């Protein structure tokens, strides 16, 4: 069942995820008074400063569209492998196309050689397709537009609409951060106008429990932080996402119907001079399911689907410490300035 955007089923009070990852009502930023907008913006900024993660409910993306995206995603990954392979991801600069299981290895490692060694021993158990801004010259999206493929046409239409809706939400979240920091809610508008973002559809295929028993280091997606400014994550109800607390312990980011999980990325932490946290997270196996009887009985982990929208400053923008984060007693700028697009390519190049 795909998430919806209204009437969230809230988790029980005082759960670990509830106490660390706040649940925030986004509606005041859409229809509230200036005072209500300010209060909500401060709550969002505080969440990014403390946990780096938050749940947003009452956001503006229609639940029917989210459901359609999940249905289209499942249909895409059910296509013949040969079709998917013909749409393969080609380069970090393009960052578009299909990524087969085991090709990407997310981690905190910066060296491609180190990542390759880690991938060889414990590959990530997932496949994905990356969709970028439509119309970027020289970097076309890899749509399943095979001759006579009506499902491919519908897939493209749904994903383009969803991409646009997520871009709007990205701009609203950045506006809230700016408002919370006292920069004025339009501060980031010139950094987000193009929408140089990536929509990623993810499929974690069902897998036997024995795979994890044979390798204690095996996870569906390894420990990592995200690279850009913020990520919008839509989960199915299977679960498996875990977030690291300040003590180094992992807790479940339990799926909550009607919400989007939002987390800060490494570039936003750098941009804010580490005022904002980019928190490590991973995807592990959810509760196992038993199938069969007697000697034929087997425990396995069902398939999981998620949809991530990775947000970045426009690729032609120069990123350096934000006003109010480094002056005077704050100790100066911790990082040199960097071009947004160059930074992302550097990070992606080590991952694939």
Q: Terminal Cα separation, in Å?
A: 31 Å
Helix content: 25-40%
Residue runs with pLDDT of under 50 for 5 or more positions:
1-18, 105-112, 114-119
The biggest beta sheet reads: 8 strands, mixed
Order of helices and strands: HEHHEHHEHEHHEEHEEEEEHEEEEEEH
Radius of gyration: 20 Å
Biggest sheet: strand arrangement: 1-2-11-8-15-5-4-3
DSSP summary: helix tally: 11
State mean pLDDT (0 to 100 scale): 86
Structural category is alpha+beta
The outline comes out as globular
DSSP E strands, number: 17
What fraction strand?
A: 15-25%
What would you say about this model in short?
The protein has about 350 residues and is an alpha+beta fold.
Write up what this structure looks like.
This protein is an alpha+beta fold and 352 residues long. 33% of the residues lie in helices and 20% in strands. It is built from eleven helices and 17 strands. β9 (241-244) and β10 form a beta hairpin.
Which descriptors would you attach to this protein?
four-stranded antiparallel sheet; 11 helices; alpha+beta; eight-stranded mixed sheet; 17 strands; single chain; disordered N terminus; 352 residues; globular
Strand-helix topology:
Layout: H1 16-20, E1 23-25, H2 28-31, H3 34-50, E2 53-57, H4 63-77, H5 81-85, E3 97-99, H6 112-121, E4 127-131, H7 150-180, H8 189-192, E5 198-204, E6 207-208, H9 209-214, E7 221-224, E8 230-235, E9 241-244, E10 250-252, E11 259-264, H10 266-271, E12 281-283, E13 289-291, E14 298-301, E15 304-311, E16 318-319, E17 338-339, H11 340-351
Parallel strand pairs: 1-2
Antiparallel strand pairs: 2-11, 3-4, 4-5, 5-15, 6-14, 7-12, 8-11, 8-15, 9-10, 9-12, 13-14, 16-17
Helix pairs in contact: 3-7, 4-7
């Amino acid at each position: 069942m795909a998430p919806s955007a209204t009437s969230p089923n809230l988790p029980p009070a005082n759960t670990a995820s509830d106490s660390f990852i706040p649940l925030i009502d986004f509606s005041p930023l859409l229809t509230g008074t200036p005072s209500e907008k300010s209060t909500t913006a401060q709550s969002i900024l505080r969440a990014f400063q403390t946990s780096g993660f938050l749940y947003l409910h009452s956001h503006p993306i229609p639940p029917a569209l989210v459901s359609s995206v999940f249905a289209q995603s499942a249909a895409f990954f059910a296509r013949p492998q040969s079709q998917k392979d013909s749409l393969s991801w080609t380069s970090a600069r393009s960052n578009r196309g299909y990524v087969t299981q085991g090709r990407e290895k997310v981690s905190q490692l910066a060296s491609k050689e180190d990542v390759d060694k880690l991938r060889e021993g414990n590959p990530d158990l997932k496949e994905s397709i990356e969709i970028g801004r439509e119309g970027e010259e020289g970097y076309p999206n890899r749509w399943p537009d095979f001759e006579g493929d009506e499902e491919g046409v519908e897939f493209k239409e749904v994903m383009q609409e969803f991409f646009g809706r997520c871009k709007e939400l990205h701009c609203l979240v950045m506006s809230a951060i700016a408002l919370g920091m006292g920069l004025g809610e339009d501060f980031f508008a010139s950094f987000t106008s193009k929408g140089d973002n990536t929509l990623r559809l993810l499929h974690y295929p069902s897998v036997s429990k024995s795979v994890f028993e044979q390798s204690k280091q095996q996870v569906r997606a390894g420990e990592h932080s995200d690279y850009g400014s913020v990520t919008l994550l839509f989960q199915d109800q299977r679960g498996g996402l875990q977030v690291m607390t300040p003590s180094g312990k992992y807790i479940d980011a339990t799926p909550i119907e009607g919400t989007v999980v939002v987390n800060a990325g490494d570039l936003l932490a750098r941009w804010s001079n580490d005022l904002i946290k980019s928190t490590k997270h991973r995807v592990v196996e959810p509760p196992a399911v038993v199938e069969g009887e007697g000697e034929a009985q087997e425990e396995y982990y069902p398939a999981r689907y998620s949809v991530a929208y990775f947000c970045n400053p426009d690729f032609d923008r120069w990123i350096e410490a934000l006003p109010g984060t480094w002056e005077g007693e704050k100790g100066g700028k911790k990082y040199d300035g960097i071009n947004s697009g160059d930074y992302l390519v550097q990070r992606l190049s080590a991952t694939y």
